[in-house]
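Q: what sequence does this backbone want?
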């Protein structure tokens, strides 16, 4: 039987971690300067990549990490460092250079992973799948995963309307703001990873 409590708990957890409202300025900054059609495509691709990564780790998470001899804190630190590099590009304006943005599909990295499908979301899904001990709870877990990705797609898809209002000057401002937010997220991920390593030791 479908478990509404499990669905609500995981959905809220992933909503806080994946942060659809917070992703909006970062998405706008990384996709600015592209045609609207390309931006819509990238929003869809980012959500598909994130869902694919989350689904794989939901099904085979522990096996993958054990096989690679990678701990969860290591995954968190690596993801944080990768996000920090992207954040520095946003803050210094390097993403304004055509060579860097036009030829690279940011929907895959960093949007799809590790921004959306980051260590926090991956670990939450692995634990939720492990705890689901019946068909109903498993169904609730996967329904929550699908629902949060639908929310992410809708938010990014319609955030493109913001670009038409704020114009080029606003995009630059949003880019710098996104860089600050992303750097804070990245540093927090590294701190969380280091803290878990220290606690484990």
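A:
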């Amino acid at each position: 039987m479908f478990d509404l409590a499990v669905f609500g708990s995981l959905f809220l957890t992933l909503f806080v971690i994946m942060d659809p409202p917070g992703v909006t300025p970062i998405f706008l900054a990384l996709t600015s300067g592209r045609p609207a059609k390309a931006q819509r495509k990238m929003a869809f691709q980012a959500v598909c990549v994130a869902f694919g990564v989350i689904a794989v780790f939901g099904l085979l998470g522990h096996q993958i990490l054990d096989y690679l001899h990678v701990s969860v804190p290591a995954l968190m630190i690596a993801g944080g460092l990768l996000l920090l590099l992207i954040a520095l590009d946003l803050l210094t304006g390097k993403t304004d250079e055509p060579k860097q943005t036009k030829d690279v599909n940011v929907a895959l990295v960093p949007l799809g992973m590790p921004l959306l499908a980051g260590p926090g979301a991956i670990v939450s899904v692995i634990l939720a799948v492990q705890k689901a001990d019946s068909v109903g709870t498993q169904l609730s877990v996967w329904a929550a995963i699908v629902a949060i990705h639908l929310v992410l797609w809708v938010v990014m898809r319609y955030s493109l309307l913001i670009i038409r209002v704020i114009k080029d000057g606003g995009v630059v401002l949003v880019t710098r703001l996104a860089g600050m937010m992303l750097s804070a997220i990245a540093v927090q991920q590294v701190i969380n990873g280091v803290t878990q390593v220290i606690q484990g030791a």
